[in-house]
Amino acid sequence: MDHPNYAVIGHPIAHSRSPHIHTRFAALTGITLNYEAIEAPVGAFAATLRTLRLQGLKGCNVTLPFKPEALSLAELSSDRAQRAGAANTLGWSDQGRLWADNTDGAGLCRDLTERAGFPVAGRRLLILGAGGAVAGCLAPLLALRPAHVTLCNRSPEKLRPLLDRHQDLGVPLAVLPWGECPVHGFDGVLNGTSAALGGSAFSLPQGLWAKGAWALDMVYGPAAAAFLQAARDQGASTRDGLGMLVEQAALSFERWHGVRPDTNPVFNELRQIVPEA
Ligand code: NDP
Fold first, then answer.
1. How much is the pLDDT for 254?
2. What's the rounded mean pLDDT across residues 22-31?
3. Residue 17 sits in which domain range?
4. b or e along 238-266 (b: 16 or more beta carbons within 10 Å of the residue's beta carbon)?
5. Is the residue at 265 inside a domain?
6. What ipTM did this prediction achieve?
7. Mutation probe of ligand 1 site: the residue of 21, 42, 194 with most atoms within 8 A of C-beta
8. Which numbered atom of ligand 1 lies nearest the CA of 178?
9. 24 partner at 20 to 30 Å CA-CA among 35, 65, 155, 204?
10. Shared domain check, 114 and 226
11. How many domains does the chain have?
12. Cβ–Cβ under 8 Å, residues 257 and 29
């Protein structure tokens, strides 16, 4: 197989663990594929996708900065992708129509509830960030019926559209400008910012977490250390984004191949390489 039939497309993309994860899923399920990481020049996502399709591409994951464009190119899209305003998974129907989905949020929820065992239903959540990852996760999180969700982002103008797209889902949503995090206890706090990846950290007020609360950073590896340590210092149980990464990949795999891979062996292997910070 010269050309990939599955891929992840982004810019940059060299860091991606998706080829490893999908190749392991394929081995575990007996499926043959050639999954590669493809770097598309900024402004050339659609052209790159067209070329890959002509060469035999059957489906792809999409990452920064192309997720919104991936959704806009698709003829068919899932409700969760529309609410996110972004797609991380593309494929073609039997009729050759491009479809888009977003598995980030469902992947997060699976890891949060099934592997970490963190409760969401009836709990008070705080979500930091309002970028693509948070947008992708909000609808699936709300489907788990938290008591209410507070959203907080450095750039407040990003919060209103996010709120508008999710207000009909029956969970009270509140918005706070950055730096005005209320100093009372949340049962769960999700960090969906890329602050630590950019080398900057933000301070978290004392009393942010309630007793017995949890914290999840969508980032994994050393970049998650500052947030997770601050949470532990306040007594919270912690989780990084490695499980979310593996679970969103498994959901994409299932969309393409109709088979749900066992994620535990792949998660455990990666955990050896990337311990929780
Ligand atoms: P985006 O670029 O779309 O959004 C970045 C977010 O981080 C914005 O809310 C931005 O705020 C905020 N931010 C960036 N720098 C700072 C800072 N110095 N202080 C405060 N806020 C800051 O990225 P994504 O949403 O796609 O990704 C967010 C994180 O989630 C990334 O670290 C990514 O690696 C991770 N991720 C993990 C996944 C997984 O499977 N585990 C899947 C997808 C993402 P502002 O709006 O003000 O710019």
1. 98
2. 98
3. 6-102
4. bbbbbbbbbbbbbbbbebbbeeebebeeb
5. no
6. 0.99
7. 194
8. 20
9. 65
10. yes
11. 2
12. yes
